[in-house]
Every structure is written in C-alpha cells, then in structure tokens.
Write a structure and sequence with these properties.
Layout: H1 3-6, E1 9-16, H2 20-32, E2 38-42, H3 50-53, E3 57-58, H4 65-84, E4 90-100, H5 104-110, E5 118-119, E6 134-145, H6 147-158, E7 162-166, E8 170-176, E9 179-184, E10 189-197, H7 209-212, E11 218-227, E12 237-240, E13 245-250, E14 255-260, H8 278-288, H9 293-296, E15 299-309, E16 316-319, E17 326-330, H10 336-350
Parallel strand pairs: 1-2, 1-10, 2-7, 4-12, 10-17
Antiparallel strand pairs: 3-6, 4-6, 5-6, 8-9, 9-10, 11-14, 11-15, 12-13, 13-14, 16-17
Helix pairs in contact: 2-6, 2-10, 4-10
C-alpha cells in the first residue's frame, strides 16, 4: 500500500517499533481484545534493530524486586510458548553462575526460586581458570532464542489480524480529543485511539523526543564478541555475576558469544559503528582471560549496537500524555527479550483493554 493510501487511516492501537517487544505488545492486545484494529509501524524491517543483534539469553534473575517479578512472568510465558510451539527457535540451556564464595546469600536473593540454585559439582569444560575464593552454582530456567527469527515468525502469524507497515517512519506525533495523530513518511497520517511507543534505543527521534525525555532513560552501547569455537551439545550458559557478563553457546550459529558490560553511554543508535574497535577487543579479552584463556585467544569478531536503559535499571511502561493515549514501553537495559512478555502485558494493562489470561497461545 502506498503512503498516499494510508492518508486518513484509523486504528484502535498503533504500535511504533516492530522489535520483539512491539510484536508481543500487538499479540497481547489481540489476545485480550480480538476485535481490535492494530497497526504496527517500523522505520526498518521487523526485528531489524536491537532485536536483530540480541543475544536472546533468558536467565531467571533480577537485581530488583520489580525485575524479578517481570522475569518470572516472562519465564512462564516462554515456557508455555515452547511447550505449545516446540518448532520456535527457543532453546533451553544448562546454566552455571560464577561468583565469589562470599556472594552465595546475595545470589539466592537475586535469582528466582525457579532457578533452584545449587552448588555445581564441577566447572563447565569451557572454564579452565577460576579466581581465588570463587565458586560455581548451577541453575534451572535458562534458555536462549534466535530473537530475530522468533520475532519475524510471531509477526508472520499475526499478519492476518495486524496491519504491519515496514519502512514507514513516524515523523510527528501528538494527541487530541479524537485520538493520537501520527504523521508518517511521505506525509500520510494515521489516527489511533492509543499509541504504544516501543522504539528500543531510538529515544531521541524528533517525533517523540520531548515526550520521552522526562523519563530519564539513556542509551548505552552493547558489545558482544563472537568466539570462534564450536560449542558442544551439552554446553550451557555461563554467567559471570560480578562482572555482569556471560558466555553463551550459540548452537544455531556454531560459535560462542561473549557479552561484557561496555561503559559507553549516551550514544546515538543511528551513528553507532557496528564494527568492533581495538578497545572493545582488549576490554573483553582482559575479562575473559581470567576464566577461559583459550577462548580469549579466539575472539576476533563480534557485534556492536546499543539499547535503552531506564533510571536505576528499571524498565519503563508508562503513559506519556495526560490523556493516557500514548504509552511508552521499553528501556529494559539489554534485557528486552528476557522481559518482553511481561512488559507487553503491563502495556496492555495501561491501554484499558479487557483482561484475559496471559498464557501463550497458538
């Protein structure tokens, strides 16, 4: 459909952003309100932003009570979805947590009861060194997904009920008595009863910059290295608790992924260079060599992007206008996949749609 054909269009809910969160918001809305007219817009293709570069790791933990609650709800959702749809690219994994021995009590506060955290009998074969006075714990409830493929698959299943508009940017957004008004690429317009902004790291787009700025969310660079070593069939995720880093066996791609915490803040997603720098490699290798020196020598490639972080590490689902027509959802701090189902449910709550069970459905 051309831009001119969209002029004067109407819908009940417009979702801006077709990443994993935006797609799950649309899915949740229709689960609760099957007759709703939902339009999903994205300046690029479905799942092409932070979703495409996501590690897709879910582990059952949270630094705050809010995040633990969201993680538990999302874990239930993904477990149900995997049971119902085993064909989807969601892969359960063993999990090992490495942390100082003195941190055990704190670990049991941070990790959900569902993790059943327990002392590991031995280290994963990948870990050939361990700092003094460190220990290892095993846990349940870990999985990872090919988030890009998952998002596209779920979107494809919604296409007979949702109007997807890829390659269509929102250039202006305001709210009036008859609805929220979106101006689109080429000057077309869309009027929506409600708008959900799920823009990922694109917080400063002119159309919504002034609405989003008071939230205090910031954008940070995310860096992960591709470790050129094929994972074995039984390899699982390894979490470096104090360093906020992890090793993930990317079985579907045939290599490991090492994600560490990069400290570059307030970056522009449109200007982020996707290439690794020498500093990125040096920082990551310096951490990894403490635990797996053989892997540190096999890090020569990777992925660079960014994501939005809420104040104090809290994801945000909140109205942006007094009339409640425009809702922001996101700033999950690199945990967009991990928390997306629960954030989608919170978003639907704010839209005042009829309640329904939050279980995954076909």
């Amino acid at each position: 459909m051309s831009a001119s054909a969209l002029a004067g269009a109407h819908c009940d809910v417009a979702v801006v952003g077709a990443g994993i969160l935006g797609v799950l918001v649309a899915r949740e809305i229709l689960t609760r309100h099957p007759a709703a007219r939902v339009t999903v817009l994205d300046r690029d293709m479905i799942g092409s932003g932070a979703t495409r570069r996501s590690a897709g790791l879910h582990f059952p933990r949270g630094a705050t009570e809010t995040v633990r609650t969201l993680a538990a709800e999302s874990q239930d959702f993904y477990a149900d979805l995997h049971t119902i749809r085993p064909d989807l690219p969601i892969h359960p994994l063993p999990m090992t947590v490495l942390a100082p021995e003195a941190a055990e009590e704190r670990l049991r506060e941070v990790y959900l009861p569902e993790a059943k955290l327990r002392r590991a009998g031995e280290l994963p074969p990948t870990i050939t060194a361990l700092p003094a006075r460190y220990g290892a714990w095993e846990g349940d409830g870990c999985q990872y997904a090919d988030v890009h493929t998952l998002t596209q698959t779920l979107a494809a299943e919604l296409r007979h009920r949702v109007l997807f508009r890829e390659g269509v940017a929102v250039t202006a957004l305001d709210s009036g008595p008859d609805g929220a008004h979106l101006t689109l690429t080429g000057g077309a317009t869309l009027t929506a009863g409600r708008v959900v902004l799920a823009p990922g790291p694109w917080l400063a787009e002119p159309a919504w910059r002034e609405l989003v700025a008071p939230l205090g969310a910031r954008v940070k660079k995310i860096v992960a290295l591709h470790v050129d070593v094929p994972p074995r069939a039984g390899d699982g995720a390894i979490v470096f608790q104090d360093e906020d880093a992890f090793l993930l066996p990317f079985h579907h791609r045939g290599h490991w992924l090492f994600s560490y915490t990069c400290r570059e803040w307030d970056v522009d997603p449109g200007a982020v260079d996707p290439a690794l720098t020498a500093d990125h490699l040096a920082e990551a290798r310096a951490l990894l060599v403490r635990y797996a020196p053989e892997l540190a020598d096999r890090c020569h490639a990777g992925r660079v992007f960014c994501d939005a972080y809420g104040p104090d590490g809290r994801p945000l689902v909140t109205p942006l206008a007094e009339d409640g027509r425009i809702v922001f959802a996101g700033a999950a701090g690199g945990s967009g996949y991990r928390l997306a189902p629960a954030l989608a449910a919170r978003t639907a709550d704010l839209l005042s749609l009829p309640a329904s069970p939050r279980k995954a459905t076909k």
